[in-house]
Amino acid sequence: MRAADESPLEANRRAWDLMTPVHLDAPFYDTPAFLAGASTLKPVEVALAGEVAGLRVLHLQCHFGLDTLSWARLGARVTGMDFSPAAIAAARALAGQCGIPADFKVADVQQLKTPDDPFDLVVTTYGVLCWLEDLDAWADGVRRNLRPGGRLILVDFHPVLEALHPGKMTGALSYFPAPRAVGTWTRGSYADRDASIAYHEFRWQHTVARVVTSLLDQGLALEAIEEYPYSSFPLFDELTDCRDGLWFSEGTAAHPYMFSVVARRGAA
How many whole angstroms separate alpha carbon 18 and alpha carbon 50? Predict the structure, then answer.
């Protein structure tokens, strides 16, 4: 149960601590395939990143680390951050089990400090922005953690989906943000609808313009922004056509399912 004085951040951390052991065993994540050598990265982020061998990569909101460790398998020197202690403990255990060198840290990505050795690449993907209340603080943390010339790669589900599929993404019931955090009581998980867990969670709606502006306000230079008529995951019933790891609806898509942003910190 959520305590009366528990903040949305604390409630969400509790929720993700509960979800982590469920997700470790869920076919959605297919941890056994990863342990056998498979990558969990999707074509979109791999194409945007390009060659990562030798790069220092920071993966924000890494959950229990499968994508982080997949970047390491491509030769990157990786650090994963997540606010869930249970997720980070699981990520460290998986790294040890695979023998993959990786650094995992418990951290709220809205409160990141300037590291001693900033990163070449910051990556954050899929279902990440809806858990952030303060995009300005997030963007400031991204800037702090990038070396001069370093890049951010963001790939997330398009916020227009909340207007087209009301309540499915954030609960705002609109493309535009709700007046306050949307709290819901949830049973199960997106990765296992029948899981015997229940928790209170909060999500926030952010427009694409607001996301981009938060990065521009930190002095990051926008290099690319893209919208995609497909999804890396079969989020909705109409996404029935899987081609090369991407999910399409039948016929011509009438709206985007995902968007990406690539931004670079200046040389100064």
Answer: 34
